[in-house]
Amino acid sequence: MPILNWLKKDEAVTAAKKSTYRLLEEVPELSYGDPVNENLLIQGDNLEALKALIPFYAGKVKCIFIDPPYNTKSAFEYYDDNLEHSKWLSLMYPRLELLRELLSEDGSIWITIDDAEAHYLKIICDEILGRSNYVSSMVWQKRTSPDARATLGAAHDYILVYAKQLSKFKSQVNKLELSEKQKKAYKNPDNDPRGAWVSTDFTGQTGHATVSQFYTIIAPNGTKHSAPVGRCWALAESTFYSLVEQNRVWFGKDGNNKPRLKRYLLEAEGVSVWSWWDNGDVGHNQESKKEIIQLFGEAVFDTPKPERLIERVLHIATNENDLVLDSFLGSGTTAAVAHKMNRRYIGIEMGEHAQTHCQVRLKKVVEGEQGGISKTRDWQGGGGFRFFKLGEAVFDEYGSLNAEIKFATLAAHLWYLENKTPLQGQATGPLLGVSNGTAYYLLYNGILGDRRPAGGNVLTSKLLDELPEITSHENIVIYGESCRLGAARLEKAKITFKQIPYDVGML
């Protein structure tokens, strides 16, 4: 598979691993609404924030929507978007690596971009996410009229869509609901008791046709019809006449036309998604700017995305209570829409407007603001979110463990380090859990009852006997400050001892 090279790519490839692994610290005074919620708003560098999320959310995010800076050589008030091409690629590469780790096996990532970097972005997405997991490039009509300042003005942006595993993603994609315009196409000229219907073509391609799909159809008035040249009938003859008996075939008002199948509004499951997204259906730039002005009194962001656009993405890719992530949160649109659609969400924004705009916007959503999709979703308010900042580094510059790290935080880190999956629930005892036949224990900060920092952190014969369920497992890994047991004793008990901080690696 072709790959893309650029200046200092080698640094970009290792940036995620070298990025500082930090704690997330809640800021209670900026959290809002029902305290029992799983929605997170995080202020801080998004690379470090994503890394902080890995031990807790790897493989759990159903849909990622990001609207990264477009590298358009223009300067926004809140973004330095004037990045050189190589710097832009180096910015995206490590973030995409971490985002992939956070996706669930049936999850998907949706990335808005314009022509300046779209084709380069696809190549690095092929490299990181897998060319075989590419879904489509949606074309969103972002303008309602041509730009008079441009010779050839761009009317669209792209939304690149990749799946974690394409087959699993395709099996759960939601169809679009019929629009009012589409519903008006359904009629009932024959007073069918099943209600309004539309007729659809009854022919098919011959590539995989069987002999049973080539036959002559006799219409009600006696007219004989054969399939068009190069085509066949869509169904076998016996199946077709069964549908005729059920009045599910339409031969026209006079009964002499070629047959067409009747599809009922009552049975309509929705419309399959295609790649052209008209701004009449999903909104446009002018609409999104009006939404921002309504919220903040001014157009503080130059290219916000309309709520209807995000609504369509989340409708296709998620269901209620699924987890949504946006690591370039901007004005907070993704989180606001997810909240109104009863999805859980994580939003990350590095600037001060994480507080001055994102937090303010989500607070209004909780209170029941009526802009954007609120009316169509019958949004009346409710729920809540928790506000976090990036805190201390888990490791110092020499790779040693920060002494202030709490037991539960270290437990989550070690479990992910060993198993590459998040620890289920919060660890409250030395036995963290069992995975693939191996039990994992952590001796740290007096978890066995001795509250002195070093108390109970040393593996001795006496302490070994006190560990819960220690005799129930054939293979055991124990993390601790030091070990007083000999190699023969450890081997006999099938224990692998790992020393803190030396064996506590960085993600």
Overall description:
There is one protein chain. This protein is of the alpha/beta class and about 500 residues long. It has 3 domains: about 10-175 and about 270-395, Vaccinia Virus protein VP39 (Rossmann fold, 3-Layer(aba) Sandwich), CATH 3.40.50.150; about 180-265, no CATH class; about 405-500, no CATH class. It has helices at about 10-20, 45-55, 85-100, 120-130, 165-170, 180-185, 235-245, 280, 285-295, 305-315, 335-340, 355-365, 405-420, 460-465, 485-490, and strands at about 20-25, 30-35, 40-45, 60-65, 105-115, 135-140, 155-165, 195-200, 205, 215-220, 225, 230-235, 250, 260-265, 275, 325, 345-350, 385-395, 430-435, 440, 460, 475-480, 480-485, 495-500. The strands form 6 sheets. Strands 1, 2, 3, 4, 5, 6, 7, 15, 16, 17 and 18 form an 11-stranded mixed sheet that branches. Strand 16, helix 11 (about 335-340) and strand 17 (about 345-350) form a beta-alpha-beta unit. The two termini are about 30 Å apart.
Give the overall form. Answer: globular
Query: What is the count of DSSP helices, taking H or I runs of 4+ residues?
Result: 15
Number of folding domains?
3
What's the CATH architecture of the largest domain? 3-Layer(aba) Sandwich
Using the CA coordinates, give the radius of gyration.
29 Å
Low-confidence stretches: none
At the fourth level of CATH, the homologous superfamily of the largest domain is: Vaccinia Virus protein VP39
Number of DSSP strands? 24
Give a short account of the largest sheet: 11 strands, mixed
What's the helical proportion of residues? 25-40%
Mean pLDDT: 90
CATH fold-level assignment of the largest domain: Rossmann fold
Q: Which CATH class of the largest domain applies here?
A: Alpha Beta
How widely separated are the two ends?
28 Å
Share in β-strands: 15-25%
**Which structural class should the secondary elements be placed in?**
alpha/beta
